[in-house]
Amino acid sequence: MEVANSRDFQWKTLAPLPSRRVYSTLVEAGGQVFAIGGCDDNGVPMDCFEVYSPEADQWTALPPMPTARAGVAVATLGKRIMVIGGVGVNQTPLKIVEMYNVDEGKWKKRNSLREAAMGISVTAKDYRVYAAGGMGCDLRPHNYLQHYDMLKDIWVSLAAMPTPRYAATSFLRGTKIYVLGGRQSKYAINAFEVFDTETRSWTKFPNIPNKRAFSSFVPTEDKLFSLGGLRQGRLYRQPKFMRTVDVFDIEQGGWMKMERSFYLKKRRADFVAGYLKGRVVVAGGLGEALGTAVTLGGRGVLLQSGEQGKRTPYGDGLQGTDEGCWPVLPASLCVPREPADRPGVGGGLPPREEQVGEPAPDAHPALRLLQHRGQELPAGGRRGEPGAEQRGGSPLRLRFLTDPSPRGGTPLPAGAGPAPGGAELCEHCSSRPGSLALPAGG
């Protein structure tokens, strides 16, 4: 695949949502974007349901959901949108399942889940929806795996997941469903397990090397990226935002040993990430403010404030390392950055700062899109929770809403706040792929 040049990316601000909300879920169906539920400013679940038309750049209200809720799991089956579980007006998980027919413009109630749950991870295959995990009314994580048969309107229990969890990330490859990470109580887990839909059995894969909360997972054609996140605090350890990038080789079945130069430029957690034209793109989230992004000379090297307040030419104090794989896209404008040889620290052209655009204002609840030649990747602040995995439509499209509030009761580092609005690109086919490392156990 030809990797897109960072110069080809640009930001575009679209029509804002009709009302403010958090924990809403976005999904694409039939070339349109649907916004489903969420919580209002008072934390009350909403029944709102709207559709965004890219051609008209406007939102249109649709028949509201029969059940007001937030943090739902969503799957698309052709032109049907299936809304599963979530949190209701009484602030407890739901077992209710409802389906919207795009052509008919009507909602129908479907057969309910076996137990009420939020934080369910869903994937769809051949008009069947697979629902894994979740957290019930007793706040305990589930190990259930169920599949829904749309033709028969029934849920069928399958082999239980080896690791109970909620808010996991799942995606489909062929006949296999990959389930990664998630949480038990307020703590992240690094379990990685795969369900084969033909043999109906689970296989444990090597654990994610670094255990982090609020990280993002991005699948590509043959690899899986585990990006950033929050290393949670323990008795003798403070919480810390991470730049870590772990890469799993799907064909080889192991995690690759990555150089630190491959890490994100900015520490961040709970951010938007996706895959577009051979690039992994990350944007927004929570992080430690690192200062104003500028460029260095004609090479377009990021210049920013480090954690100790001093400026370094390569960000985060990693002077002299090769960061050619992560060009930086600040909010509003792109910082073009061509991978090129450069002299060591202290050599080359003297720094020359160039303004690359003012930080974007708080756009909540606006939907922002990162466009590349007609293919769209929405980006912004925090993801809706749970179920922020890629669903339906083109594999080059991901859609998320901003969400300014911390969640889940996880302690954050002192001084934590929104990340400095920057987006970053990673070239998927890196010239430094790293060596394959198969962790013991798992």
TrEMBL record:
Q: Where is this region: Disordered?
A: 337-360, 377-442
Q: Which SMART domains match?
A: Kelch (SM00612)
- Keyword annotations of the record: Kelch repeat, Repeat
Please note every region of biased composition (Low complexity): 408-423
One Pfam annotation, family name?
Answer: Kelch_1
Q: Gene3D superfamilies attached here?
A: Kelch-type beta propeller
What protein am I looking at? Kelch domain containing 8A
